[in-house]
Each structure stands twice: as C-alpha cells, then as structure tokens.
Amino acid sequence: MTDNMVVGREAWIVARKALLEEEKALTHAREALAAKRRGLPWVKLEKDYQFEGEKGPVSLAALFGPHRQLVIQHFMFGPDWEEGCPSCSFMADGYSQQLPHLAARDVAMVAVSRAPLTKLLAYRKRLGWLFPWVSSLGSDFNVDFQVSFPKDGNGVEQFYNYEPKIYDSEEMPGISTFYKNDAGEIFHTYSTFNRGLDDFIMAYRFLDIVPRGRDEEGLSDSMDWVKRRDKY
C-alpha cells in the first residue's frame, strides 16, 4: 500500500493541474532535445557492411528497402547463446507491430545480432515478432558500433556508451540510426545505449503512470524482474 494522501475530487483536480504544468514543460523540453538530436553532425560510412538475411547475404544499404532512414536495434544475442536477451526482447515486444507506421514516415527498422540466422528466426517465430532480423556474424558491424566485445574480454575495460568501462558481457544493447541519400551514401546519424533505451520500451511508459511505478526498488539490477514474454 502506498502512503499517498486521499482527498476529494476538487483537491485532486488542483494537484493534477499543477503536475500538468510540469508535464507540459517536460514535453516542450523533450521536443527541444529531439531537435538538437536531429541537428547532430553525421558520419559517412566507408565500410560495405554485409549481413545474413532470410534471402541470403544482404548489405546495410539493402536494409533500408525503399526508405531513406533506418533504425537498427542492436539486439543482444551472442553466437553461442540459445536465447536472445530478456531486456532486448522486452524492447522488441513494444515495436514489433510498428513497422507500417514507421514506413509511412520513410523509416525502416531492423534488428541486428551476431547469433546465426537460424537461431534468430526461430526465436522470432517463438515470440511472434514481425520485424526483419539479420545476422552480423562474420561482420565488423557490432564491433565498430561498440556493442560486441571479445568473448574472453570479461573484466577488461571496453568502450561502451561513449566511455571506457569494465563490463561482464560480450554483448551490449543499443539503437542506431542511419540515413541514405540519393547517391546511395550512408551516414550514421545517432546511437543511444544503456538508460537511453528506456524511452523505447513501451511497457515503461505505462508503468511510470501507475501508483507503484516500475516497482524495482530492492532489486540488485533494475531489470531483474523482466522475463521473456512467454516465461511469465
């Protein structure tokens, strides 16, 4: 049970309207930050990254399909793993059905992991997802975008989330965005990692408005409660 005050409807409206002003200010601040994000400089890609897709080898350029913009989820699924990361799966549950909406705004979305394609497709089928998923096994893509590290690198300082730190996993999560111009040149425009991924987890948006919130206090890791959707 929470310790919230219990008041009449009129007093509640007064308190709610006061909070609404703060919510509006946050909305405007988020819009301003989004504009700054879109205004970041770009990096032209020089490598021709190749992946394994459902119809065979596929280039990064081909992942755009007919669109000029591409969002990639760096989905944690190592070559030797039997299942994808629960937290990455938690995120994927929130966007699997969004592809038509993104396509309407000239955006493609693809998940990329280092596990063999057969594992990726079997896991996708198990959880009923619809998004394209390709394997980057044998490619420099994950390493270049700093989401995969040597398997024997546990306890060794790695560069992730724009700073060096020691991590205990060979795979880390992230989202990266790209733009392809009419000449076919591809540019890296944005990447976010770690807590920057919270905004892309739909369930959090609902948990943040209920009385007990995410209810993660006391957990050794904030996402220890998260399971794959078919394991609750």
How is this structure best described in words?
This protein is an alpha+beta fold and 232 residues long. The chain has seven helices and ten strands. The chain has helices at 9-38, 60-63, 86-95, 99-103, 117-127, 141-144, 202-207, and strands at 43-44, 50-53, 56-59, 69-74, 107-113, 133-135, 157-160, 163-166, 174-180, 186-193. The strands form three sheets. A six-stranded mixed sheet has the order 1-10-9-4-5-6. A hairpin with a 5-residue loop joins strand 9 (174-180) and strand 10 (186-193). It is globular. The mean pLDDT is 94.
Labels describing this entry:
232 residues, 6-stranded mixed β-sheet, two-stranded antiparallel ribbon, alpha+beta
What is the topological layout?
Blueprint: H1 9-38, E1 43-44, E2 50-53, E3 56-59, H2 60-63, E4 69-74, H3 86-95, H4 99-103, E5 107-113, H5 117-127, E6 133-135, H6 141-144, E7 157-160, E8 163-166, E9 174-180, E10 186-193, H7 202-207
Parallel strand pairs: 4-5, 5-6
Antiparallel strand pairs: 1-10, 2-3, 4-9, 7-8, 9-10
